[in-house]
């Protein structure tokens, strides 16, 4: 598989030059924040997202849109912290990530499983009744610590995202949280984060809905794998002439 050989090539370049790595991370984290929020309807452009992260207020935009940017960057920092400390994956981490995503926006629902039925706009799949959320989250954690450990991290990351967002355990912020969980799984295995682009939103939604309604996750896994290749290509192009 090409993506495995790319990963091996990148691993052979470690440790990467300090400032090259820093600039790559800043680029990907900005694009991750912009695209993940844009998928959910945030109207800030990528340049406006950048200045918000620099502490500047953008006129004509809502406080919620500003907070979504700031919160997402804090959530990425939390993901990095989990990876650095090699903390085992837990339901507590999921709730903490969600708490960061909704901080100051909907504090009442931040990190708290929903007690109302919700629907996913444009999707055939209907999330479970609130009374079944804890049961399904328990099943997700059992799957992750059991069967998922035999999977390639690209597969386990994609499936973790798909299963989680199918449960839709929170009132709001499920999409952003699911993409954070996907990248958490990839980064724990030494992959750079990937960007699900707002321009690819239709294919992304269709692949997820297919996974939820038919239990066929191949399209979604393929979509994630393609984005992994793009992120690896970016890193490799930046260090192509570097010898550790």
Question: What labels describe this entry?
Answer:
single chain, 244 residues, mainly alpha, Fic-like fold, 10 helices, 62% helix, 0% strand, globular
Characterization of the model:
Residues 89-226 form the Fido domain. InterPro entries: Fido, Fido-like_dom_sf, Fido_containing. This is Fic family protein. By secondary structure, the chain is mostly helical. It has a single domain (2-113, 125-238), classed as Fido-like domain (Fic-like fold, Orthogonal Bundle), CATH 1.10.3290. It has ten helices and no strands. It has helices at 2-11, 18-39, 46-53, 63-85, 91-101, 133-145, 153-167, 174-188, 201-214, 218-238. Helix 7 crosses helix 10 (218-238). It is globular, with a radius of gyration of 18 Å. The model has no long low-confidence stretch (mean pLDDT 95).
């Amino acid at each position: 598989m090409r993506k495995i050989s790319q990963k091996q090539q990148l691993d052979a370049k470690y440790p990467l030059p300090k400032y090259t790595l820093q600039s790559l991370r800043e680029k990907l984290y900005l694009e991750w924040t912009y695209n993940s929020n844009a998928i959910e309807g945030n109207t800030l452009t990528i340049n406006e997202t950048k200045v918000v992260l620099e502490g500047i207020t953008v006129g004509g935009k809502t406080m919620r849109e500003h907070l979504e940017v700031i919160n997402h960057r804090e959530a990425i920092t939390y993901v990095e912290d989990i990876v650095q400390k090699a903390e085992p994956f837990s339901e507590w981490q999921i709730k903490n990530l969600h708490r960061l995503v909704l901080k100051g926006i909907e504090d009442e629902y931040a990190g708290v499983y929903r007690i109302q039925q919700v629907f996913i706009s444009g999707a055939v799949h209907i999330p479970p009744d609130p009374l079944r959320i804890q049961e399904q989250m328990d099943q997700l954690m059992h799957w992750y610590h059991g069967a998922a450990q035999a999977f390639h991290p690209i597969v386990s990351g994609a499936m973790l995202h798909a299963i989680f967002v199918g449960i839709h355990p929170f009132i709001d912020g499920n999409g952003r949280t699911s993409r954070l969980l996907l990248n958490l799984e990839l980064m724990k295995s030494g992959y750079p984060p990937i960007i699900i682009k707002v321009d690819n939103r239709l294919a992304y939604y269709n692949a997820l809905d297919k996974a939820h309604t038919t239990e066929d996750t191949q399209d979604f896994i393929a979509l994630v794998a393609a984005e992994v290749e793009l992120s690896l290509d970016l890193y490799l192009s930046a260090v192509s002439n570097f010898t550790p």
